[in-house]
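Q: Given only this backbone (226 positions), what sequence would you predict?
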């Protein structure tokens, strides 16, 4: 994914760009409304992180202008804590989501992934995911370990998909919550752990493998080594 970050706090912008890059994506930063607007018109941009308070043109106006031009790139607004009016104005202007400052980088990335998947024309275009002898087909909602098809419930399929999309990287419980449960449970629930355990039983233990590992206090990882 190629992400655009627009915020006049240069240190924050640079930190977000670096985090997204280290997470395996490409990202670029801009520090004012007009330059952010120009960059967001590029069809190669998959999603925009847009601060509301920007010099030259505020984030709400940038978003409204993009939508008026027919640019449907997903937009996440960065708003101040308690600034409900900013969120309402941004969503009315066409923003897809918002994140309140200060925020966790993991949460921002999870929300970026979520809105990128919802973008018209992107779903079903990535083809099958492959990690070793694990294969997952998002379109058909089917998965295999070698020649054996896996019998996965809907949430279990979602957990495996996120792990395979991020193979070799840590997937936090917050990310699974956002991408698989869409916020319908909470981190205090054991639903995430239960489903990961079920996936591990079907994907690993049934084949005498150990590819899904738990990193205490951090999350889970699908190992890529054979």
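A: Predicted residues:
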């Amino acid at each position: 994914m190629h992400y655009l970050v627009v915020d006049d706090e240069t240190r924050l912008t640079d930190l977000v760009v670096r985090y997204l890059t280290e997470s395996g994506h490409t990202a670029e930063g801009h520090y004012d409304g007009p330059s952010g607007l120009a960059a967001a018109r590029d069809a190669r941009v998959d999603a925009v992180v847009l601060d509301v308070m920007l010099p030259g043109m505020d984030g709400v106006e940038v978003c409204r202008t993009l939508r008026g031009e027919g640019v449907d790139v997903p937009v996440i607004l960065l708003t101040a804590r308690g600034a409900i009016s900013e969120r309402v104005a941004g969503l009315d202007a066409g923003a897809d989501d918002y994140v309140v400052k200060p925020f966790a980088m993991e949460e921002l990335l999870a929300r970026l992934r979520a809105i990128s998947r919802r973008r018209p024309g992107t779903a079903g275009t990535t083809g099958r995911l492959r990690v070793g002898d694990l294969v997952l087909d998002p379109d058909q909602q089917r998965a295999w370990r070698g020649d054996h098809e896996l019998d996965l419930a809907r949430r279990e399929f979602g957990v495996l998909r996120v792990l395979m999309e991020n193979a070799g990287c840590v997937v936090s419980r917050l990310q699974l919550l956002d991408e698989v449960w869409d916020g319908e449970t909470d981190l205090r629930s054991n639903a995430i752990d239960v489903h990961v355990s079920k996936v591990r039983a079907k994907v690993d233990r049934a084949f005498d493998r150990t590819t899904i590992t738990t990193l205490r206090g951090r999350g889970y990882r699908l190992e890529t080594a054979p």
